[in-house]
UniProtKB/TrEMBL annotation:
Belongs to the short-chain dehydrogenases/reductases (SDR) family. This is SDR family oxidoreductase. Coiled coil: none annotated. NCBIfam families: PRK07231.1 (NF005559), PRK12826.1-2 (NF009466). InterPro entries: NAD(P)-bd_dom_sf, Sc_DH/Rdtase_CS, SDR_fam. GO terms for molecular function: oxidoreductase activity. The keyword Oxidoreductase applies. Keywords: Oxidoreductase. The keyword ATP-binding does not apply. It comes from Streptomyces benahoarensis. PROSITE patterns: ADH_SHORT. Pfam families: adh_short_C2 (PF13561).
Amino acid sequence: MVGRLEGSVAVVTGAGSGIGRAIAERFAAEGATVSVWDLDEKDAAGTVDALTERGAKSAACAVDVADGASVGRAAERSLAAFGRVDILVNNAGVFDYYAPVLDTSEEQWDRILGVNLKGMFLVTKSLLPALLDGGGTVVNTSSISGVVAGGGGIAYTSSKHGVIGFTRQLAADYGKQGVRANAILPGAVETPMTRPILEQGDAAILETVRSVPAQRHAQPAEIANLALFLASDESSFVHGSSYVIDGGWTAL
């Protein structure tokens, strides 16, 4: 059977581990060529090795999404290697471990917003001309912190609210030119970034995670399944939407 992304080229940021790696693996399994972007060059190479072992075509790019020059080099490298980009997944992100305003430094604020929101802007801007060439798809990773409080601290929650606004405006600006943009809003997911929280975090936070209707946290592959839907033609009439995938957390 032909994969749902057969013949397409995808760029996935933060693909060295966690949700990003799961998305890269899912896309590759559906026939996509994947350009793996991550701040950690070793992690990016590890994902590429895993994809190559499964017969997929892939390449690694070490990139700091919060740095315009770094993003520009990665975009040039990806386009030179694969000739085009059909799918962009803006997944790279950092967490602030529930820090409130008084515990958040200016440096921490700048770092969180720099990666989670500015980085999304820089990456999208660098690849949008290529996406417009063939009519592409953008999938942005927000969070339930994009619609409710309590899933992160002040900087993280602000950044993830911003991702939803960014996604909606991107869809409004470029949908008529053939580029779809949508966001995924995960709840608690077991990744290298969140594992310390899930294992030894604040008791109230852990109780919330365990009390959701699903009674568990998600695995990265479950988030990747939603990203696949939004990246594929199966979601061809979906523009500017935000999909919560949280085990029922926000239903409480």
